[in-house]
Design a protein that fits this description.
By secondary structure, the protein is mostly helical. Helix content is 86%, strand content 0%.
Length: 119
């Protein structure tokens, strides 16, 4: 029973994450402000292209976190063949690496904007 509750909770969190990511990808400044330091980033007066790039990267990171949660859950609880279990773990690792790359790119973009605006 508790597994079912966990899967339902994971599904609910996933839906929220996917929808939130969609709003981010579309360029919602209200959603972007919630993401780590969104207001500080907007205070640097990024161009529309810089903002869109950052928002889309953030959306990808949110979606990858959802993928990581599903991969971890499937790997831990599902009855998977060894090859499928390895594939799920590799997919989770790739999603995790993607999040790391996005974070590095976001930090680099922020540093570029700080230099550009004399910060």
């Amino acid at each position: 029973m508790e597994i079912v509750v966990g899967i339902v909770a994971l599904a609910a969190v996933s839906i929220v994450g996917i929808v939130y990511g969609a709003f981010l990808f579309a360029g919602s400044k209200a959603c972007f402000r919630v993401v780590c330091g969104g207001e500080d980033f907007l205070a640097l007066c990024p161009s529309d292209a810089e903002f869109r790039k950052s928002a889309r990267r953030s959306a990808v990171a949110v979606w990858m976190i959802v993928a990581i949660m599903w991969c971890a859950t499937a790997s831990a609880y599902a009855c998977l063949d060894d090859a499928v279990r390895i594939a799920v773990r590799v997919a989770g690792a790739v999603a995790g690496a993607t999040v790391v790359v996005v974070v590095v790119l976001q930090v680099r973009q922020r540093a570029d904007l700080l230099r550009k605006h004399g910060g």
